């Protein structure tokens, strides 16, 4: 049952779901000290999967019994189940949006309602109240007040402003799914750029250090180095517009925004190219630095 709707998964999907509910876990307190020490140096607990199997078989790590309910975090089934559960709410929100001549979009628990028609500020309160009622009645969910925003976009003024509960206006931006629109231009969220840059630099240091160690004859680092090298060149330094990478994703998003462009600027791809270029330069700098250690 999902919000009063009867939903039956296909046999193969149900088999996957049933298997996922039989998962086991390892409590953080049960991780041996040597693995914790290894993780501090290498950013992972083990070097090979078989090391984990060996630790379990020898009793170094205690594994829980099989669970009977719930599914492990991080599986793609989570998104599927969430979408199934939200079907009644999605239908109601779509109807509400259409009544105002607008559109409704949702990604996981993050949704947006766009209303192009002129709506009075008092009516906006009614809309929010209706959404809250539908969320509780259809999905037993409640809107998070701190994350709920009412934004007004004026094309003529090229501005986005926030409407407070007291019906006061203040400058703001439309921040959704990693992109930010300030009324004039669409850009990548600053946090997204920082996270990519941080992970990229970490990978760069691993590769530069690994290359130095291999040249010095330390072959023990070969396998971790290979993995780090492929991750670096495949994910962080790849400038291809077609690749499944940060730059590739940014390039495709940039084209979509420009295709649908009603007159605003788009700087998504420019930002991505700059941050990848910085990572490439950073790799050269670290190579020179570690070369001095030989």
TrEMBL record:
Database matches in InterPro entries: DNA/RNA_pol_sf (IPR043502), RT_dom (IPR000477)
Organism superkingdom: Bacteria
Reverse transcriptase domain residues: 1-181
UniProt GO MF annotations: RNA-directed DNA polymerase activity
Keywords for this protein: Nucleotidyltransferase, RNA-directed DNA polymerase, Transferase
UniProt-recorded name of the protein: Reverse transcriptase domain-containing protein
SUPFAM superfamilies: DNA/RNA polymerases
